[in-house]
From TrEMBL, chain A:
InterPro entries (UniProt xref): NMT1/THI5, SsuA/THI5
Native organism taxonomy: Bacteria, Pseudomonadati, Pseudomonadota, Alphaproteobacteria, Rhodobacterales
Stated role: Responsible for the formation of the pyrimidine heterocycle in the thiamine biosynthesis pathway. Catalyzes the formation of hydroxymethylpyrimidine phosphate (HMP-P) from histidine and pyridoxal phosphate (PLP). The protein uses PLP and the active site histidine to form HMP-P, generating an inactive enzyme. The enzyme can only undergo a single turnover, which suggests it is a suicide enzyme.
Domain of life: Bacteria
Subunit details: Homodimer.
Keyword Iron: yes
Domain SsuA/THI5-like: 34-253
Gene3D superfamilies, sorted: Periplasmic binding protein-like II
Pathway involvement of the protein, from the record: Cofactor biosynthesis; thiamine diphosphate biosynthesis
Protein name: Thiamine pyrimidine synthase
PANTHER family noted in UniProt: 4-AMINO-5-HYDROXYMETHYL-2-METHYLPYRIMIDINE PHOSPHATE SYNTHASE THI11-RELATED
Family: Belongs to the NMT1/THI5 family.
Organism: Paracoccus seriniphilus
Keyword annotations of the record: Iron, Metal-binding, Pyridoxal phosphate, Signal, Thiamine biosynthesis, Transferase
Amino acid sequence: MRHLVISAAALASMVTAAHAADDLTLQLKWVTQAQFAGYYVARDKGFYDEEDLNVTIKPGGPDIAPTQVLAGGGADVTVEWMPAALAAREKGLPLVNIAQPYKSSGMMLTCLKESGISDPQTDFAGKTLGVWFAGNEYPFLSWMNTLGLSTEGGEDGVTVLKQGFNVDPLLQKQAACISTMTYNEYGQILDAGLTPDDLVTFKYEDQGVATLEDGLYTLEQNLDDPEMVDKLARFVRASMKGWKYAEEHPEEAAEIVLDNDETGAQTIEHQTRMMSEVAKLTAGSDGTLDEADYQRTVETLLAGGSDPVISKEPEGAWTHAITDKALN
Amino acid sequence: MTPALTPIVLVWLGAWTLNIALTSLDLPFSRVLTPIIFGATILLLWEMACRIFEIPPVILPPPSRIAVSFTQNTSILWTDFVQTILKGALTGWMIGATAAIVTAVAIDRSPFLQRGLLPIGNFVAALPIVGIAPILVMWFGFDWQSKAAVVVVMVFFPILVNMVAGLAATDAMQRDQMATWAAPYWQSLWKLRMPAAMPFLFNGLKITSTLALIGAIVAEFFGSPTKGMGFRISTAVGRLDLPLVWAEILVAAIAGSLFYGIVALIEKKVTFWHPSQRK
């Protein structure tokens, strides 16, 4: 019996080998974590196989600029935040948004209550704020511009620190506020012993300056190739299936992420919490980019005063062609 | 071989032939001209390769674009240079060197310290910069002070080891001579053993001049204010402004060469008596 099972499995693998699946490489924005659960679930649950795809998932990290990997031909699709993607587009790298699995932004500014900040309009001036760079600074810079605050320091502006990828500046009181994601750093602050009562958080969503995060981007020329378009549509369909599965089974999704984490740095508690927070952000998106969200993102970015993130309204920066093909 | 490669190979062979001719003729100016031609050829081939193969500037910008970025961003580059090189690297290097020299004298005075301090110095030298940088940023804040601290840790040991070896460089006959003249410890240190140690000390200072630059730049990856070469390099990559990244690299290369050159010049003046300085 066991022989039979094994030979049946061997036969199955031979059948798939006989007609090779299409290769596709996905470059993540950051390290392997539940922020990207949908893709790992789609791969491990065989959703990509069902679509006849062989997907390679490349984790990112602090020294990896996903847009650069895409430009260098190291990946076909990348997960990126829209501000960085639009800025890259203006720099001459023709990135196009083909799907938007994240409906809402998870970005916040988390402040110590003792710093006396309660209203962004009046209380940021003269304070020190921690910000991530490497393409993640755009939403923050746009927000400060809409508040009319200079980021050059001084009494009337804010002093910006380039925050490392931890929450130490807040714990050490080196900064009044730091950038956090609902699903990651905010939890790290709580783990470090602070309580929500010690903190004040400002969600970019609530401030009306949210920009779209974790969309799927590819290079424009790929959309001129019908074969590639078909491949991308299958990829998006399977990925969204993975996302919806992950939303419904957060524990299992966290397990799958952990299985795929080669660094061994993640823990199941952390990933389960991350998954349940991420699920709130991906809920309400079937993968199709909402034009209103795109417009809001562009307007936020254009609202830059002296140093806008993008200088003009982008054209052709998104398409529904892939999601329409994938979801209908 | 693709036909696109032909002009590149031709230019390379031409420059090579020219240099061979120059060196074999041994003209008075060929010593200067040969390396200049070599460097110019490298830049020319780089520019040609970028244009002929249409390499996207995001991957590798041609030298011409880097030059444009350099001239357009002089104020940014100057701010970053002051923040990273003058404040971070130079301060740290001076503090580290002073501490190392003082420690070396202390070690020289007492065998007890020699047995205790050298292993600790050895241990500190083995600490990876990526491990200590975040900790020092936490201790000394985000500004240049933490970068200087990283540099201190990096340069301390190489200078210490060289200085300890230098203080042991005199032979017994010379030391006996000083004793015969009834010179106390400090006098014999100052008149005999310090000068004898100079070639060793400068060896350490030259090695660490480049280390200091690397330390200050890399330390900025772990938290910095919104200026500095390390800050600019890491953020400009995120913004796909690669010409600016290369302009910063160019500044670092120029600063590193100057720094090394100045130290080597001082060495020439101080150790004029040493056989290695004879013309």
